[in-house]
């Protein structure tokens, strides 16, 4: 809670907590204050008490950041079990599809923003490891006359099972990251993974640093979505890819009716029963309804400078994956 209060204080002062609380030894951290793509810091804008929404509630922008922080601080420990319960495991398939769509190449440098408890990062690591193992096997098969000692030596010399791929999980919430780190230990992920406390609106990374930027179920919670998109564009290398998995607009009227019923009648109840937190799950279903449609969000991504922007709706549009390139 003390950290949360300090976030509020720094925000109030027109400074951002993520700038101050850098917690990763990764190289390439930005040493100066961030600039927008036009080189301008909008400090005066940050100080204005502009109104926005938090679910169906109208709040000041300052308040929204605090409230979102509190939601994820509160749900962190039950976050993963809640997702399985609410979606009957379907969120796992959506996340798998995001990583399949990414189809990372050997050596991919991924930034997973609003990465929370690490679901995208772990999928990415499993994918690149399997891909790298497959490549090694194919290479060995091509050299069929090798002795078993030579094969063993080849495997042992392979120091990096990820083939140079790396992922940085960046999230504004300490509690979500804490759960993520525990999961990483439990699942045996050590190499190629870094955890960074930071704000999607002011990423603590240099320009042109990553091959892929992902954000799954995160951008809906950000106060200035345009600012987050511009930051995504800034940190990607030329040729880099933006991928976003987010709730979207249901395109089938029958599914829409059932989904609304399910969202408003069932999800907050599950939130209360499983996580002891009705309000956070009411925020979840309300925030889904406030998020732009597939087409509107596509335009926002284009406005941030991305090209070849496309999207794919999944499960009747309950969620969509948007993709764009920095060219
Ligand atoms: C605080 O912020 C957050 C917290 C978080 O924990 C997570 C997030 C981010 C979110 C995720 C990572 C994903 C979370 C997943 C969801 C929100 C769920 C998405 C929903 C679905 C995949 C299912 C969609 C449901 C439908 C299309 C409608 C089907 C629903 C029914 C047949 C039930 C209709 C409901 C009623 C008639 C109300 C009365 C019913 C009951 C009291 C019985 C209770 C029923 C159930 C528990 C049924 C559950 C059924 C399903 C899950 C349907 C699955 C089937 C398919 C779509 C094929 C975050 O930001
Ligand atoms: C629904 S969770 C998604 C976690 C993970 N990506 C997943 O798919 O399971 C949303 C995450 O967004 C994070 N978040 C909210 N606002 C943020 C911001 N401005 N910058 C970075 N992360 C943010 C929250 O702390 C939370 O961990």
From TrEMBL:
Enzyme class at the top of the EC tree: transferase
Pathway annotation: Cofactor biosynthesis; ubiquinone biosynthesis
Membrane topology: Peripheral membrane protein
Cellular component terms per the entry's GO annotation: extrinsic component of mitochondrial inner membrane; mitochondrial matrix; ubiquinone biosynthesis complex
Catalysis: reaction(s): 2-methoxy-6-(all-trans-decaprenyl)benzene-1,4-diol + S-adenosyl-L-methionine = 5-methoxy-2-methyl-3-(all-trans-decaprenyl)benzene-1,4-diol + S-adenosyl-L-homocysteine + H(+)
Annotated Pfam families: Ubie_methyltran
Keyword Mitochondrion part of the UniProt annotation: yes
Function: Methyltransferase required for the conversion of 2-decaprenyl-6-methoxy-1,4-benzoquinol (DDMQH2) to 2-decaprenyl-3-methyl-6-methoxy-1,4-benzoquinol (DMQH2).
Subunit structure: Component of a multi-subunit COQ enzyme complex, composed of at least COQ3, COQ4, COQ5, COQ6, COQ7 and COQ9. Interacts with PYURF; the interaction is direct, stabilizes COQ5 protein and associates PYURF with COQ enzyme complex.
Protein name (record): 2-methoxy-6-polyprenyl-1,4-benzoquinol methylase, mitochondrial
The species this protein was found in: Mustela putorius furo
């Amino acid at each position: 809670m003390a950290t949360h209060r300090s976030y509020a204080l720094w925000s109030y002062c027109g400074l951002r907590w993520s700038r101050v609380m850098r917690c990763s030894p990764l190289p390439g951290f930005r040493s100066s204050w961030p600039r927008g793509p036009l080189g301008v810091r909008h400090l005066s804008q940050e100080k204005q008490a502009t109104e926005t929404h938090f679910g169906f509630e109208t709040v000041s922008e300052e308040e929204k950041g605090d409230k979102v922080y509190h939601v994820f601080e509160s749900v962190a420990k039950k976050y993963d079990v809640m997702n399985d319960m609410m979606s009957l495991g379907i969120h796992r398939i959506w996340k798998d599809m995001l990583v399949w769509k990414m189809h990372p190449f050997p050596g991919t440098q991924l930034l997973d923003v609003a990465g929370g408890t690490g679901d995208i990062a772990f999928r990415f690591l499993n994918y690149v490891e399997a891909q790298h193992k497959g490549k090694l096997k194919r290479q060995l098969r091509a050299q069929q006359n090798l002795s078993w000692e030579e094969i063993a030596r080849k495997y042992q010399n392979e120091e990096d099972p990820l083939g140079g791929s790396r992922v940085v999980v960046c999230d504004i919430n300490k509690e979500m990251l804490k759960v993520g780190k525990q999961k990483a230990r439990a699942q045996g992920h050590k190499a190629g993974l870094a955890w960074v406390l930071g704000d999607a609106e002011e990423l603590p990374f240099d320009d042109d640093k990553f091959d892929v930027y992902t954000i799954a179920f995160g951008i809906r919670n950000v106060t200035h979505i345009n600012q987050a998109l511009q930051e995504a564009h800034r940190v990607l290398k030329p040729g880099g890819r933006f991928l976003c998995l987010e709730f979207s607009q249901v395109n089938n009227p029958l599914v829409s009716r059932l989904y609304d019923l399910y969202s408003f009648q069932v999800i907050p109840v599950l939130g209360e029963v499983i996580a002891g937190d009705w309000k956070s799950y009411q925020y979840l279903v309300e925030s889904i309804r406030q998020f732009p449609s597939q087409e509107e969000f596509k335009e926002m991504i284009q406005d941030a400078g991305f090209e070849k922007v496309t999207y794919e709706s999944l499960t009747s549009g309950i969620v969509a994956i948007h993709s764009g390139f920095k060219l």
